[in-house]
# Entry
Amino acid sequence: MNTMTLRSVFIMTLVVAVLAGAGTASAAESGLYLGALAGKASFEYKDFEDDFEDNFKGDDTGYKLFLGYRFGSFVAAEVGYVDLGSAEDTVLGVDVGLETTAWDASVLGILPIGPFDLFAKAGVISWDAEFDAAFDGVSFGSLSDSGTDMAYGVGAAMNFGALAVRLEYERFDIADSENVFMFTGGITWFF
# Structure
Protein backbone atom coordinates (compact mmCIF):
# COMPACT_ATOMS: atom_id res chain seq x y z
CA MET A 1 0.00 0.00 0.00
CA ASN A 2 1.28 3.44 -0.73
CA THR A 3 1.39 6.28 1.79
CA MET A 4 -1.66 8.04 0.35
CA THR A 5 -3.80 4.90 0.69
CA LEU A 6 -2.65 4.29 4.28
CA ARG A 7 -3.39 7.91 5.15
CA SER A 8 -6.87 7.64 3.60
CA VAL A 9 -7.64 4.44 5.54
CA PHE A 10 -6.47 6.07 8.76
CA ILE A 11 -8.59 9.18 8.20
CA MET A 12 -11.71 7.15 7.30
CA THR A 13 -11.23 4.96 10.40
CA LEU A 14 -10.90 8.03 12.59
CA VAL A 15 -14.05 9.61 11.10
CA VAL A 16 -16.05 6.39 11.62
CA ALA A 17 -14.82 6.13 15.22
CA VAL A 18 -15.81 9.74 15.94
CA LEU A 19 -19.26 9.31 14.37
CA ALA A 20 -19.82 6.00 16.18
CA GLY A 21 -18.92 7.59 19.50
CA ALA A 22 -20.96 10.75 18.93
CA GLY A 23 -24.32 9.09 19.55
CA THR A 24 -23.16 7.31 22.69
CA ALA A 25 -21.09 10.01 24.36
CA SER A 26 -23.89 11.06 26.71
CA ALA A 27 -23.79 7.67 28.46
CA ALA A 28 -20.57 8.75 30.19
CA GLU A 29 -21.90 12.07 31.57
CA SER A 30 -22.34 10.99 35.20
CA GLY A 31 -21.83 8.06 37.51
CA LEU A 32 -19.26 5.65 38.87
CA TYR A 33 -16.33 4.39 36.75
CA LEU A 34 -13.21 2.22 36.95
CA GLY A 35 -10.05 2.76 34.98
CA ALA A 36 -6.65 1.31 34.15
CA LEU A 37 -3.77 3.20 32.56
CA ALA A 38 -0.20 2.17 31.64
CA GLY A 39 2.74 3.94 30.07
CA LYS A 40 6.03 5.70 30.73
CA ALA A 41 6.93 6.77 34.25
CA SER A 42 9.96 9.02 34.65
CA PHE A 43 11.87 10.17 37.72
CA GLU A 44 14.67 12.74 38.07
CA TYR A 45 16.44 13.51 41.33
CA LYS A 46 18.87 16.38 41.76
CA ASP A 47 21.35 16.55 44.65
CA PHE A 48 20.35 18.89 47.50
CA GLU A 49 23.56 20.89 47.39
CA ASP A 50 24.03 20.74 43.60
CA ASP A 51 27.58 19.53 44.36
CA PHE A 52 27.57 16.89 41.65
CA GLU A 53 26.95 17.16 37.94
CA ASP A 54 25.70 13.58 37.80
CA ASN A 55 22.07 13.28 38.93
CA PHE A 56 19.61 10.37 38.99
CA LYS A 57 17.43 10.08 35.88
CA GLY A 58 15.46 6.93 35.23
CA ASP A 59 12.24 5.69 33.72
CA ASP A 60 10.23 2.52 33.56
CA THR A 61 6.78 1.28 32.67
CA GLY A 62 4.25 2.49 35.21
CA TYR A 63 0.56 1.85 35.69
CA LYS A 64 -2.44 3.22 37.50
CA LEU A 65 -5.73 1.66 38.64
CA PHE A 66 -8.45 4.05 39.74
CA LEU A 67 -12.06 4.52 40.78
CA GLY A 68 -13.91 7.70 39.91
CA TYR A 69 -17.26 9.39 40.08
CA ARG A 70 -18.41 11.89 37.47
CA PHE A 71 -20.76 14.61 38.77
CA GLY A 72 -22.55 15.66 35.57
CA SER A 73 -20.70 16.87 32.51
CA PHE A 74 -17.94 19.03 33.99
CA VAL A 75 -16.56 17.63 37.28
CA ALA A 76 -15.24 14.26 38.47
CA ALA A 77 -13.29 12.92 41.46
CA GLU A 78 -10.86 9.99 41.39
CA VAL A 79 -8.84 7.87 43.83
CA GLY A 80 -6.27 5.39 42.66
CA TYR A 81 -3.20 3.25 43.10
CA VAL A 82 -0.09 4.34 41.16
CA ASP A 83 3.01 2.22 40.48
CA LEU A 84 5.85 4.26 38.96
CA GLY A 85 7.89 1.14 38.25
CA SER A 86 11.57 0.51 39.00
CA ALA A 87 13.74 3.31 37.64
CA GLU A 88 17.50 2.70 37.43
CA ASP A 89 20.54 4.88 36.77
CA THR A 90 24.26 5.02 37.50
CA VAL A 91 25.27 8.04 39.59
CA LEU A 92 28.98 8.66 40.21
CA GLY A 93 29.72 5.01 39.39
CA VAL A 94 27.08 3.66 41.78
CA ASP A 95 24.12 1.69 40.42
CA VAL A 96 20.97 3.20 41.92
CA GLY A 97 17.47 1.73 41.79
CA LEU A 98 14.26 3.46 42.79
CA GLU A 99 10.83 1.86 43.25
CA THR A 100 7.90 4.17 43.93
CA THR A 101 4.25 3.35 44.61
CA ALA A 102 1.48 5.67 45.72
CA TRP A 103 -2.17 6.34 46.40
CA ASP A 104 -3.65 9.48 44.88
CA ALA A 105 -6.85 11.51 44.97
CA SER A 106 -7.78 14.13 42.37
CA VAL A 107 -10.56 16.44 41.24
CA LEU A 108 -11.04 16.78 37.47
CA GLY A 109 -12.42 19.70 35.52
CA ILE A 110 -13.86 18.37 32.24
CA LEU A 111 -14.62 20.06 28.93
CA PRO A 112 -16.88 17.75 26.86
CA ILE A 113 -16.63 18.25 23.08
CA GLY A 114 -18.94 15.77 21.33
CA PRO A 115 -17.61 12.28 22.03
CA PHE A 116 -14.36 13.73 23.41
CA ASP A 117 -13.54 14.94 26.90
CA LEU A 118 -10.59 17.22 27.65
CA PHE A 119 -9.68 17.45 31.31
CA ALA A 120 -7.33 18.99 33.84
CA LYS A 121 -6.81 17.50 37.27
CA ALA A 122 -5.29 18.46 40.61
CA GLY A 123 -4.92 16.55 43.85
CA VAL A 124 -2.54 14.84 46.24
CA ILE A 125 -0.30 11.79 46.09
CA SER A 126 0.76 9.77 49.13
CA TRP A 127 3.90 7.91 48.04
CA ASP A 128 6.39 5.32 49.28
CA ALA A 129 9.84 5.02 47.69
CA GLU A 130 12.68 2.56 48.16
CA PHE A 131 16.23 3.37 47.03
CA ASP A 132 18.81 0.62 46.45
CA ALA A 133 22.50 1.22 45.73
CA ALA A 134 25.29 -1.10 44.58
CA PHE A 135 28.89 -0.72 43.38
CA ASP A 136 30.48 -3.50 41.32
CA GLY A 137 27.67 -5.84 42.34
CA VAL A 138 28.12 -5.19 46.07
CA SER A 139 24.96 -3.80 47.64
CA PHE A 140 25.09 -0.79 49.96
CA GLY A 141 21.62 -1.66 51.21
CA SER A 142 18.44 0.31 50.79
CA LEU A 143 16.70 3.36 52.14
CA SER A 144 13.01 4.13 52.16
CA ASP A 145 11.11 7.39 52.23
CA SER A 146 7.49 8.45 52.05
CA GLY A 147 5.42 11.59 51.91
CA THR A 148 2.33 13.36 50.65
CA ASP A 149 2.65 15.95 47.89
CA MET A 150 0.75 17.68 45.09
CA ALA A 151 -0.22 15.97 41.82
CA TYR A 152 -1.70 17.49 38.68
CA GLY A 153 -2.22 16.65 35.04
CA VAL A 154 -4.09 16.98 31.77
CA GLY A 155 -5.69 14.47 29.45
CA ALA A 156 -8.24 13.55 26.84
CA ALA A 157 -10.76 10.75 26.50
CA MET A 158 -12.94 9.47 23.67
CA ASN A 159 -16.24 7.99 24.81
CA PHE A 160 -17.84 4.91 23.28
CA GLY A 161 -20.89 4.50 25.47
CA ALA A 162 -19.84 2.97 28.78
CA LEU A 163 -16.25 2.57 27.55
CA ALA A 164 -13.79 5.45 27.15
CA VAL A 165 -10.25 5.42 25.75
CA ARG A 166 -8.03 7.83 27.68
CA LEU A 167 -4.61 9.50 27.33
CA GLU A 168 -3.15 11.32 30.31
CA TYR A 169 -0.07 13.25 31.45
CA GLU A 170 0.43 13.52 35.21
CA ARG A 171 3.12 15.32 37.14
CA PHE A 172 3.89 14.60 40.80
CA ASP A 173 5.65 17.19 42.99
CA ILE A 174 7.39 14.57 45.13
CA ALA A 175 9.66 16.14 47.75
CA ASP A 176 13.36 16.40 46.83
CA SER A 177 12.72 15.36 43.23
CA GLU A 178 13.30 17.49 40.18
CA ASN A 179 10.80 15.91 37.79
CA VAL A 180 8.40 12.98 38.31
CA PHE A 181 5.75 12.30 35.68
CA MET A 182 3.70 9.63 33.92
CA PHE A 183 2.43 9.63 30.34
CA THR A 184 -0.20 6.89 30.05
CA GLY A 185 -2.99 5.49 27.96
CA GLY A 186 -5.80 3.18 28.90
CA ILE A 187 -9.52 2.70 29.38
CA THR A 188 -12.31 3.65 31.75
CA TRP A 189 -15.56 1.77 32.19
CA PHE A 190 -18.72 3.59 33.39
CA PHE A 191 -21.40 1.76 35.39
Notes: Confidence is low (pLDDT under 50) at residues 19-27. The first strand starts at residue 31 and ends at 45.
